[in-house]
Amino acid sequence: MVAGALAALAVTLAVLLGVDQVGTVLLGVLGWFVALAARLPAVGSANRLHAIRRRDTIVAAASGVTDEVVRLALVLVAVSGVESALWAGFGWALAQLVFIAATELKTFSWPLGTQATEQLQAQGGFVSTHPVHSGVRGLTTMSFHLGATLLLTAGLWWVLATASAHALVNLAFARQASKRLVPVELFGITVSVALLVAGLLGSG
Q: In this predicted structure, what is the pLDDT of residue 66?
């Protein structure tokens, strides 16, 4: 099923973008799936905890750091130059946005299981109650991943900044979004825009 979805995505992107860019975009998509798989052990371990706030804190922090380590590996292996970084970041964000849309389906749990899906939803504040909110989340997600990928091409040591930013955003959503959604969204927007601007400036 995943292979079929990736094949369909590859054909669509080839038509829209041209063959030259498809490989880099798909590597970004693959990077996100690898990051998702890498965080599942932390989700599984945290689910054994009875203290919900502690569990959410562990998962949010661990997933933010794990994602950025995988992104660093993606940059080292497959990214060369600003244009390549932009397309890889776009693919990463595209994969996450598709996942976000899927988690809003009540029956969605594959391939993670219901508990893991709920944990991942909690991290990102995925459930949107209005189309405008969905649009804002989409732009924020795109800005974050484009900026983070660009920053790592500017200097690998920037992974310290991207991992910290990712963990902080995840923690904000996991612990505060249910009570203070607007301030948390504004925080996420601020961090994402800052990463994008820094990435663009750093990469020249």
A: 92
